[in-house]
């Protein structure tokens, strides 16, 4: 129950190698159950499992090994066995492979690796979440792949190594891939590669991470994941996410729980705090970016230069003004075409006085903002009033920190500058 590339298969294999021949009378390691089950079906995996546990190739010729015969179960009852099922993706797969194995001899062990905790919640005696590497461990693993076991890192800026460690955030796969890619390259090439990763993530890494997303069998839950990936740059509370997405609808509550089980979202250090790994967020934003070449035909926008591409397709806009590198001018009709806009979040991380560039509305806003808006935040809102046809029917939160607002439509309001 960890994110892709974190090393569960590697750890399971180490356990298998250490224990299989010295502690058990029969052993089987089924690799990549998710993919093999899809390609070959349960019978193929069941045959392999039984034949290896009993060291009997005749089982491979059985017509229906899915349900073991009393004779086979009798043989299993007399053997202490070790079974490792790697990357199990659903309860159906697990049940097909371990059905009847409650008859195993005492002290037998079944170890399951999965990205979805729901697979094992009802049947497992113990859970273990594989954590990422520490900072020092990350640097050590990266050094091994980038420089070799006995090589020196003389001539390479320590800040570059720190950037790699921060980007990987303890994920061994990322450290290995980047280390191998940057091996024998110059310091200047490192700079170029690391800057490029911010815009265009490594495809090999993304493919592994994306498996957890593709395993979500509900489009609504996928949508909740993409919303969160585009909306939040830092940790957030569950209440914030639920209020912002569909105004706390119960389906969103379920979706967040599923995402935590995968885990595409994780618990933070503070109670009720949640966070998304930077690489998982980057994967989600890449999925959104790849929806269409034209930003206006994507459901979500998170880049300042895309805001002017307003169409009815857009449901969510989230812009961190701390990240823009130039002034952005938005035409007055940019938002009037976005009839399905649910979330409009223009915000600042950090100190407002450090903001060098701004979002301008030289012609003001058109008279219309989507009546589907349930969340509206605009830090340093530049106008003195809201659009005349902006309704509060579905609005849950209105946040206008440090705004120039003097009127809500035709009504005077007291404005506090935070």
UniProtKB/TrEMBL annotation:
Question: InterPro entries under this entry?
Answer: Apaf_helical, Disease_R_plants, Leu-rich_rpt_3, NB-ARC, P-loop_NTPase, WH_DNA-bd_sf, WHD_ROQ1-like
Q: Which UniProt keywords apply?
A: Leucine-rich repeat, Repeat
Record-annotated NB-ARC domain positions:
3-150
Q: Which domain of life is it from?
A: Eukaryota
Repeat as UniProt keyword: yes
Query: Which residues are in the Disease resistance protein Roq1-like winged-helix domain?
Result: 222-290
Q: What name has this protein been given in UniProt?
A: Disease resistance protein At4g11170
This chain's source organism reads: Ziziphus jujuba
List the gene name: LOC112493430
